[in-house]
DNA sequence: TTAACATATGAACAACTATTCATATGTACA
DNA sequence: TGTACATATGAATAGTTGTTCATATGTTAA
């Protein structure tokens, strides 16, 4: 494997930490094929709006999702294809 | 993205949780090109033998690493190429 | 402007986790 | 068998984190 410095490894751990929570993974999966508003995510996961909003903030800070306003709602979606790739790569290990 | 059930998402989060710790990521990186014994990992990371041993146990339970005895030492190495793939995929996102 | 709706945020608490310390287990060699 | 070496493990602790509750911010339409 190519050379990776300490800071990069630290950032990498931080990234995986974000994926390492079932609420956040479920949110990312919900967003994998379409953009959704906060309340819809909360309802579909059976969680409070506040809990979801807190997690969306973490996901956005990690640049895994993006958002845009649409009237009163805010629609969230995946930031780019890396997210799908990381999830798919993880699934290959889980499915053994 | 293809259909994934709740249990699979839960397992996926558990997997990423293991990657989501800088000590464990650094261990995995150390093991990425050769097998190493416990004390050598501890020395190279500047941590105690006990701390490393605890983390190795977690990594092994997640089937990310394997081990074999060599005399008094136990040599650890990556379980398979999935580990490298997952790390590389994560790096692509971190390096932006 | 006011009411209703949608989302964000801060504080507090409970649950979880990584490390430390002390010690146990296992191996090799004299 | 006894000693030194290498690793594993259990309990305790300190630090971290996800959720809840209450409330603030922002938007729309009457």
Characterization of the model:
Two copies of one chain form a homodimer. The first copy, chain A, is built from five helices and three strands, in the order ααβααββα. By secondary structure, chain A is α+β, with helices and mostly antiparallel strands. The first copy, chain A, has one domain (6-95): Winged helix-like DNA-binding domain superfamily/Winged helix DNA-binding domain (Arc Repressor Mutant, subunit A), CATH 1.10.10.10. The first copy, chain A, has a three-stranded antiparallel β-sheet. The two termini of chain A are 23 Å apart. The relative contact order of chain A is 0.15. Chains A and B meet through α1, α2 and α5 of A and α1, α2 and α5 of B. Chain A binds a DNA duplex (30 and 30 nucleotides) through residues 21, 23, 37-39, 47-57, 69, 71-74.
Topology of this protein?
2 copies of one chain form a homodimer.
Chain A: H1 6-19, H2 22-30, E1 36-37, H3 38-45, H4 49-61, E2 65-70, E3 73-78, H5 81-94
Antiparallel strand pairs in A: 1-3, 2-3
Helix pairs in contact in A: 3-4
Chain A binds a DNA duplex (30 and 30 nucleotides) through residues 21, 23, 37-39, 47-57, 69, 71-74.
Quick overview of this protein structure:
The first copy, chain A, is of the alpha+beta class and 96 residues long.
Coarse morphology of chain A: globular
Structural class of chain A comes to alpha+beta
Helix content of chain A: 55-70%
Number of helices of chain A: 5
Cα-atom Rg of chain A, whole angstroms? 14 Å
Determine the strand fraction of chain A and express it as a percent band: 5-15%
CATH architecture of chain A: Orthogonal Bundle
């Amino acid at each position: 494997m190519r050379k990776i410095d300490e800071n990069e490894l630290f950032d990498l751990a931080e990234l995986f930490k974000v994926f390492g929570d079932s609420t956040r993974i479920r949110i990312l999966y919900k967003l994998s094929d379409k953009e959704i508003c906060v309340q819809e995510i909360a309802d579909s996961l059976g969680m409070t709006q506040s809990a979801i909003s807190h997690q969306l903030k973490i996901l956005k800070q990690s640049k895994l999702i993006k958002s845009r306003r649409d009237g009163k709602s805010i629609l969230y979606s995946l930031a780019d294809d890396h997210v799908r790739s990381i999830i798919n790569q993880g699934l290959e290990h889980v499915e053994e």
